């Protein structure tokens, strides 16, 4: 998602444009990796010395709620990234070393449906974790 679309969504949802929100969204727009609140805080403390995790988490939660960011949990910590702009259904491979993300276009749900006859599945999330080729050759 680009930042223009993100601001449209925030405005439609009744949220105002602030310098802090703008900096958070800029950081996400400039990377295709997942970021943590800690990643954001390290950068934002320079411009906002009183910035707290609470402020960052409130904004991140808002962005997830309105569909701007996606979140996942890696190594016991919440990680966030801009919502994918592609409309087709897909999943992600996430490198646990560098954070690189690659789209995976196969969905394993057909196999799951076969094993759950009579069940209604509302939604699902499927992520694959490991090392990308660059990180495998670097070690």
List keywords for this structure.
139 residues; alpha+beta; Arc Repressor Mutant, subunit A; Dna Ligase, domain 1; 2 domains; 3-stranded mixed sheet; two-stranded antiparallel sheet; 6 helices; 5 strands; 18% strand
What's the gist of this structure?
The chain has 139 residues and is of the alpha+beta class.
Structure commentary:
The chain is α+β, with helices and mostly antiparallel strands. The chain folds into 2 domains: 3-82, Winged helix-like DNA-binding domain superfamily/Winged helix DNA-binding domain (Arc Repressor Mutant, subunit A); 91-138, Ferric-uptake regulator, C-terminal dimerisarion domain (Dna Ligase, domain 1). Helix content is 42%, strand content 18%. The chain has 6 helices and 5 strands. It has helices spanning 3-12, 19-29, 37-47, 53-65, 109-115, 133-138, and strands at 69-74, 77-82, 91-95, 101-104, 127-130. It has a 3-stranded mixed sheet with strand order 4-3-5, with no helix packed on it. Strand 1 (69-74) and strand 2 (77-82) form a beta hairpin. Helix 3 crosses helix 4. It is globular. Pfam families: FUR (PF01475). Its cofactor is Mn(2+); Fe(2+); Zn(2+).
């Amino acid at each position: 998602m680009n930042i223009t679309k993100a601001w449209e969504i925030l405005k439609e949802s009744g949220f105002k444009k602030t310098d802090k929100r703008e900096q958070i969204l800029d950081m996400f727009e400039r990377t295709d990796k997942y970021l943590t609140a800690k990643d954001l805080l390290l950068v934002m403390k320079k411009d906002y010395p009183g910035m707290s995790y609470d402020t960052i988490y409130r904004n991140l939660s808002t962005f997830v709620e309105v569909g701007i960011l996606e979140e996942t949990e890696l190594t016991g910590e919440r990680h966030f990234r801009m919502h994918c702009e592609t409309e087709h259904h897909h999943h992600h491979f996430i490198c646990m070393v560098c954070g690189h993300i690659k789209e995976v276009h196969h969905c394993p749900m057909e196999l799951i449906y076969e094993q759950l006859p009579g069940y209604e599945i509302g939604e699902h999330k499927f992520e694959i974790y490991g090392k990308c080729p660059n990180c495998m050759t670097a070690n």
